[in-house]
Write a structure and sequence with these properties.
The structure holds two protein chains of two kinds.
Chain A: H1 2-33, H2 52-55, H3 63-94, H4 100-108, H5 115-129, H6 135-159, H7 163-171, H8 176-205, H9 208-213, H10 220-230, H11 234-265
Helix pairs in contact in A: 1-11, 3-6, 3-8, 3-10, 6-8, 7-8
Chain B: H1 28-55, E1 57-60, E2 64-67, H2 72-113, H3 118-126, H4 133-143, H5 149-156, H6 159-166, H7 178-202, H8 206-214, H9 219-230, H10 232-248, H11 251-256, H12 264-275, H13 278-303
Antiparallel strand pairs in B: 1-2
The chains are: A mainly alpha, B mainly alpha.
Chain lengths: 266, 309
């Protein structure tokens, strides 16, 4: 009976952990199979342990090139979307203006639209304009769909900001520019950083919109997609595992740093 | 600049140096909005117009297309591809329900039961995002491989007999069946369900749970009458964030499915990028957009949370 009671009390915990397992299982498989030595062209069946792929991560033709294109696009898209999105977020929270409803829905709609619809319609625009598909069309598309997410992230932060802090700065004879740089921006920074991080992740991992508007440019997700047809090199798993580890490490370090800071303050 | 010794400026409107209120400042919001809004108008709204126009054009790639208000394209597209539309809605709907059922306990666990593990679990939910989702989706090919441990276990438990009977799987295969596609969709969009659920659960005052308990509510009643209703905003935005991208997805259907599991996204993709029949492709995409907008609007109205935007 005590077991049944324990089970009853912790049912939600067990179910939650099972879901967590479901979420993490593919990452485990990706990591394990980065040490595989497949027989054929596809890396779907376990053969034998080997560290070949880790020793030569760029050993596959074109893969690291596509990775570098993806990183460049993600970096530019993050900068573009973060600047434009932060400006919009400030305008939305801090100012009154006409057509607020239209602005809000223009920001909401890209997030409520299936990617394939945005991808297809953007392609019709580029085709009609006779634009050369490639790096720039991908970048334009990525800034477009990252923008709304940055606005949402920054808006949430700016809204929770106490406007009296800025008034106080102005009472202390700070000009509008000084107030912005020394008070507003530092307080809004976590929101801006969150928006930028989201934009980077979204852009780096985007496949559907890129697939439509890339022309012959191959980003990393495009490379993976192509390899699913031609044959999956083990190196893909190496990159996937490395990205996962780097992300977890970065987040953990930033958490440790903030924890320490909070302790120092307390 | 005023000095401290000066008297405070008079509040009366007769003050000589009083400027008209914020003349310069009035334009600031428009300048802030202009570049971003221009971007969205040109690269989001305008393409929709182009797409609508393309969908009523006729012609060929060689001779060029002209707007002929040929609405029959819509009819042809619907009558030829209705199974794919139906499948998209069915698969995306099943994945959304599965995400809710699987995601709720995890969101609840993070919000109320995780204690000092909360941040770690949160990281583990988000971290997979940083590995390309295509790589992770390919991993499902390994997990669900024919004769693999998962399929073997499902087979010996006779689960596959039931799912075959329902038409979700065929024989002793899971790969290349609807079940595999729904499983992939569920997996890919699960975090989009968990995060909004967590946000709304976390806001709930835990004293409400205690109060319900004090009033002799069983845990299940507390959940039904207190927790779940209060988490409705999270449920609504989570289901939307799952259903919309899932309905337009073609990656899972392509990698984990077969020709019998093609969704409307697959059709749009191949029409646009392989067959190059732009009017049909544009019409298909327009129908999908309209269908989703209608469904989302009705859903938001029904669930009574219109302040999502």
């Amino acid at each position: 009976m005590p077991f049944v009671n324990w089970l009853k009390r912790n049912l939600v915990v067990i179910a939650g952990l099972l879901t967590l397992g479901y979420l993490l299982l593919p990452n485990v498989v990706v990591t394990v199979f980065s040490f595989n030595k497949p027989k054929g062209r596809f890396n779907y069946e376990w053969q034998q342990f080997s560290t070949d792929a880790w020793k030569d991560p760029c050993g596959v033709a074109d893969m690291c090139g596509s990775l570098s294109i993806s990183l460049q696009i993600a970096a530019f898209a993050t900068i573009g979307a973060t600047i434009l999105g932060t400006m919009i977020a400030f305008a939305l929270v801090r100012y009154r203006f006409r057509a607020r409803g239209a602005v809000n829905s223009l920001i909401f709609l890209p997030m409520a639209m299936p990617e394939v619809v945005m991808a297809a319609s953007l392609l019709t625009l580029f085709l009609n304009m006779g634009a050369q598909l490639g790096f720039w069309t991908i970048l334009i598309a990525h800034i477009m769909f990252c923008l709304s997410f940055v606005v949402t992230a920054v808006k949430a932060r700016v809204m929770s900001m106490d406007p009296r802090l800025e008034q106080a700065a102005q009472d202390l004879y700070a000009g509008p520019f000084q107030t912005f740089v020394r008070v507003t921006l530092p307080i809004a920074a976590p929101g801006i950083a969150a928006g930028a991080l989201l934009a980077f992740a979204l852009s780096f991992d985007d496949f559907i919109i890129t697939n439509f508007n890339a022309g012959s440019t191959v980003t990393f997700p495009m490379f993976v997609w192509g390899s699913a047809q031609r044959g999956t090199p083990v190196q893909i798993n190496v990159i996937g595992t490395a990205m996962f580890l780097v992300a977890v490490l970065l987040v953990l370090t930033s958490m440790v740093i903030t924890n320490r800071r909070n302790k120092q303050k307390a | 600049m005023a000095t401290l010794t000066e008297a405070p400026p008079p509040l009366a409107p007769t003050a000589p140096e009083k400027k008209p209120p914020r003349k310069r400042g009035r334009l600031v919001p428009y300048w802030l909005l202009l570049p971003g809004m221009l971007w969205l108008v040109v690269f989001f709204a305008l393409p929709m117009v182009y797409q609508a126009s393309t969908s009523v054009q006729t012609g060929s790639l060689e001779e060029g297309y002209k707007v002929t208000w040929h609405f029959a394209t819509y009819w042809d597209a619907l009558s030829e591809y209705w199974p794919q539309y139906l499948r998209s809605i069915l698969y995306a709907g099943s994945a959304t329900i599965l995400c809710l059922v699987l995601g709720y306990p995890l969101a609840y666990l993070i919000a109320f039961r995780a204690g000092r593990w909360r941040n770690l679990i949160m990281i583990l939910v988000i971290a997979p995002f940083f590995t390309s989702f295509l790589i992770r989706t390919l991993a499902w090919k390994t997990i669900l491989a024919d004769g693999g441990p998962v399929v073997g276990a499902l087979n010996s438990l006779h689960v596959l007999d039931v799912t075959s009977w329902l038409g979700w799987t065929t024989g002793d295969r899971v790969l290349a069946t609807p079940l595999a596609v729904v499983c992939g969709l569920t997996y890919n969009f699960l975090p989009f369900m968990i995060l909004p659920l967590y946000t709304s659960l976390e806001r709930i005052d835990t004293r409400l749970h205690e109060a319900a308990g004090d009033l002799y509510a069983k845990p299940i009643t507390t959940f039904r009458k207190v927790t779940f209703p209060l988490s409705m905003p999270g449920v609504v935005s989570g289901t939307l964030l799952t259903f919309i991208p899932a309905a337009g997805d073609y990656v899972n259907a392509d990698l984990l499915g077969s020709t019998d599991t093609r969704m409307v996204g697959n059709v749009i993709q191949s029409q646009f990028l392989r067959i190059l029949d732009y009017p049909t492709a544009a019409a298909l995409s327009f129908i999908l957009m309209a269908a989703i907008l209608v469904m989302v609007t009705v859903y938001i109205r029904k669930s009574g949370t219109e302040d999502l935007v």
